[in-house]
Amino acid sequence: MGVTLMISVMNPSAQTAEVTATSPTTVTFTATVTVDKPPLIGTVMVTLEASASTGWPTTVSPQSIPFKSPGTVQATVTVTVPQQTSSDLIGAIILNGLATYPGGTASATSSATVQVGQYYKCQLNATPTLGTENPQTYDLKITNAGNGNDSFELALVDQAVISKAGLTVTLDKVKTGNLAQGGNETVHVKVSYGAGASSGKHEFSIRATSVGSKTGSNETATKDVVLSIDVQPWKGQAGTTFGLIAVVIIVVVIAVVFLAMKKGKLRLKKKAKEAPKAPSEKKEAVKTDSQKKDPKEK
Q1: Which domain holds residue 129?
Q2: Are 128 and 106 found together in one domain?
Q3: Can you count the helices (H) and strands (E) in the chain?
Q4: Does residue 36 sit within a domain?
């Protein structure tokens, strides 16, 4: 009659590892190692070895257990799941035991599983961050920095500031598609202003919010990026408006001057036509003088 080695099902049989973008995590399992042997067989040495199908660092303690008589010993299996591990992974944890004794060997196996929990994180980058054109377009790059599929909603944060400054801000989309871990998408932000906008530098923010984080745990579920624009009323669309106003004013002024000059010429012509009447008046004056001569002179 030989030796019997048994390893119980690990407890618990399944666990979830909650990793983050910057920190790994560990999960532990326990298992009971039992040896049954006849009295005539000497010491039985049991060697334990643990591993993960995903290659995660896995240890077991104790690694070696001597049994001089039948008995049970509890072993602890520790699994370290690295940071940023994808939530798509499921690790099969295997605990192997080998009993060695004079005249023979015996083996046993136990298993458990580790599911990786999903965390939600967003990276937000803008090019440029300071605009000087009118209209000005910003390229907003949204990156899924979480460890599973996710999408992101976009919104203006400082609507009151934007309205007060006289700016018009539009996004070509308010939600990204479904992005895999590390995936990214670019959204275009357009800013424009009219002649009534406040001149100078104005700042406003765009916020990206993880859709998945609304129902799950998260590390950083939202991310803001600050954009700014240097408003120059004489530039771009506003400048065009000012330019049109100036052109209209100039045209009106020219028209007024032209009409004034035309009216002035008419007056000059009228005076010029009236000028020849002067000699006839002189003749009249002469005639009058002659008429005033003494009648005796006849």
Answers
A1: 122-237
A2: no
A3: 3, 17
A4: yes
Residue 205 belongs to domain with CATH number: 2.60.40.10
pLDDT computed for residue 251 by the predictor: 59
Closest CA to 149 of 88, 222, 218, 228: 88
Q: Does residue 26 fall inside a structural domain?
A: yes
Which of 112-121, 239-248, 256-265 bottoms out in mean pLDDT, i.e. has the lowest?
239-248
**pLDDT, tens digit, 9 for 90 and up, residues 253-286:** 676 666 767 666 555 555 555 555 545 444 444 4
Task: Give percent above pLDDT 90 in the chain.
Answer: 71
Q: Does residue 296 sit within a domain?
A: no
Spatial strand order in the sheet of 90-101 = 14-17, 104-116, 90-101, 44-52, 64-67
* Token code pair at residue 149: 């599929």
Category of 255 on φ-ψ map: left (φ > 0), alpha (ψ -120 to 50) or beta: alpha
- In this predicted model, which residue has the larger pLDDT, 99 or 158? 99
For residue 2, which phi and psi values (nearest 5 degrees)? -100, -160
Our count of domains for the chain comes to 2
Burial of 228 (0-12, 13-18, 19+ CB in 10 A): middle
The residues, ordered by sequence, that sit 6+ positions from 10 with a Cβ below 8 Å of its Cβ are 29, 30, 31, 77, 93, 95, 110, 111, 112
Q: Tell me, what amino acid is at 17?
A: A
State yes or no: cis peptide before 233, omega within 30 of 0: no
